[in-house]
Write a structure and sequence with these properties.
Residues 83-102 are annotated as: Disordered. It comes from Streptomyces gulbargensis. The chain has helices at residues 26-40, 49-57, 63-72, and strands spanning 46-48, 76-78, 84-87. The protein is an alpha+beta fold. It has a single domain (24-102), classed as Arc Repressor Mutant, subunit A (Orthogonal Bundle). It has a three-stranded antiparallel β-sheet with strand order 1-3-2. A hairpin with a 5-residue loop joins strand 2 (76-78) and strand 3. Helix 2 (49-57) crosses helix 3. It starts with 25 loop residues before the first helix and ends in a 15-residue tail after the last strand. The relative contact order is 0.16.
Length: 102
């Protein structure tokens, strides 16, 4: 397996600030998700699903995929009913578990 240098996340965005595409490679997508979580969502604040969708729509039309990647990746925590989201301090080695908001 060859190690590729990680390109800057800025390469993923067009001049207008929108994402060109959601990366397929996991490492690249993870770097993007970390960037989105940090730049679009404040730590300690609870967001309604509509607010999360609006923030994600500002960068890419496939906001459901981005939202799902953020939750599954541990960047956003979601209540069981899916009504509220919070930015997570991402724990290492989540093993794909979906964190929930208490």
């Amino acid at each position: 397996m060859t190690s590729h240098p990680v390109r800057p996340v800025a390469d993923l965005f067009a001049a207008d600030g929108r994402l060109k595409a959601i990366p397929r490679r996991p490492a690249r997508r993870e770097a993007l998700l970390a960037h989105l979580a940090e730049t679009l969502f404040e730590a300690g604040r609870t967001y309604r699903e509509a607010e999360v969708n609006e923030a994600l729509t500002s960068v890419h039309e496939d906001f459901p995929a981005l939202r799902r990647y953020l939750v599954v990746g541990g960047f956003l925590a979601r209540t069981k009913d899916g009504a509220a989201y919070r930015r997570q301090q991402r724990p290492t080695g989540t093993g794909g578990a979906i964190p929930a908001v208490a």
